[in-house]
Amino acid sequence: MTVAIPCIQSSGVTLVLVVSNIDLTTDLPIMKPSTFLESSIKDFTLNINNDYRYLKAGYYVSLHAEILGNQVIPSSENIIDAYRTPILLLRASKAGIPTMPYLVTDSVKQIISEFNFPVVIFAVNPFSYNGFKTAKNRSALYRALKSLGMNYKFDVCAQPLKGEMISLKSVFGRCELNRDARKISKRVYEVFKIPICKLHIQRIEGKAYLCGLQPLKNEEISLHDLKMISEEISQISKNGENLVG
Amino acid sequence: MVKIWLASIACFVEKYNFTDPKEAMALQNFKIAAEKMGHEFNFMFRENLLEIPKYDAVFIRATTDPLYTAYIVSKTAWELGLKVVDDPKSIQICGNKIHLYELFEKYNVPYIPTIFLNKDELHHKRILDVFRIFGRPVVVKAPYTSFSRYVEKVACETSFREVAKRFFRKSDVLVVQKFMPTTFDWRVGVLNGEVLYVCKYMVPKGRWKHGAKRRGKPSFVWGRTISLKRENAPAKLKETALKACELVGHGLYGVDIKEINGDYIVVEVNDNPSIYAGYEDFRNRDIYSKIIAYLTD
Description:
By secondary structure, chain A is α+β, with helices and mostly antiparallel strands. Chain A is about 35% helix and about 25% strand. Chain B folds into 3 domains: about 10-85, Response regulator (Rossmann fold, 3-Layer(aba) Sandwich), CATH 3.40.50; about 95-110 and about 180-270, ATP-grasp fold, B domain (D-amino Acid Aminotransferase, Chain A, domain 1, 2-Layer Sandwich); about 115-180, ATP-grasp fold, A domain (Dna Ligase, domain 1, 2-Layer Sandwich), CATH 3.30.1490. At the A-B interface, helix 2, helix 3, helix 4 and strand 5 of A face helix 2, helix 3 and helix 4 of B.
């Protein structure tokens, strides 16, 4: 199958935009993921998707770009790691991003022995990806593990809850919260390069700590976000090669 | 007196790794080989993951997939600078057949004729197209298949749609392959670019794959495993297996290969290959010590 190649020559960078169901307010050419997956375009690939989860179209676009030998944002490895909470926290912490201590386990007893209540629980299983649960006592912890661990079959990622949980939208590392949250959002983007995501952070005594990262639902993307995404894309199209880490 | 070990190996396992006596025996053989070579070898379960930094190497025997705990163990060990089998990159590649076949295509590894099908393509015209290209039946494979699961043979549009819809629940892209029946598949075990063992995985009578689900039951029926001395296996077979593994990495792999009219065609490369006492090790007893030596090198 022959596919027309949309490209922009700017600062020596040819940019291919791959967009799923996001209607961007940009003049730049856009290609659907399904079209890109059948193509063999060898160019800088900017994969814009609200959901990059493993096995979903957003993941396959980055994978296909890598097989073609393209530079791509985000990389398939970063996609896998960013969505697996313990790996997100491990790599973020290595990069100097403030994180909370965490425990990967399927045991209520082990969580209680490591942390005091309340605790926040993220799923580490192939099926759940949305949200987290907080547990203030043993019975709530059992319920959280039963639900997020799919009847204790899978592990969960437990973290102590010492402050307030805040969820924020991050677009190319930009978010509209206070300075600490903005700094985390920017640093997470620098490390993982996930253009659009939801970050869960914990604010303790005015300081922000990264807790988790999840995909955004399409309906969560506002007109303002679309504008921000389009602005960033235009920026990358001007300085593309400097932004691939 | 406290024994001083040369190196300390954690073997990440889950309870199910001990349900088959042959697998449990193989795990004990790893422990015996490691200790004979002067290394500590401890089984590490999910509740002991905090202990990863204490070890020099991690050997994963629990089922791997980027979405399973085994990937978290692998990546954590990797990030901490430990030697790890299976390494995260191998899990990422072998855990997704789309990834694997794209690499085979790019680097000219002979593999089963394959088409990728995405969700938008599940319509009458495309299905007929697939049957026209490959004939009937065809094999529909979920990218996350392992142990012969999520691989089904379909011969009509209704079955095609039913299987594809089921597999699309988890993955947005599927693999469709030409049906190429053989009485056995070669299994070549490869470690760090060298052939470790060679077996024939026989297909049970009346079935079309090595592991087939019993009708109406959750259990599987498995074909026999015939082991060969690696020196006696065909050179071209070993060459094909090594070429396929080169694309994945330098870890431990089990390559499934079909022999058709003297040609060797790769079915897939698996990380975390099965090692059962009396099967894979039957003609190549040194596989345990070779793997331990690689982990502690």
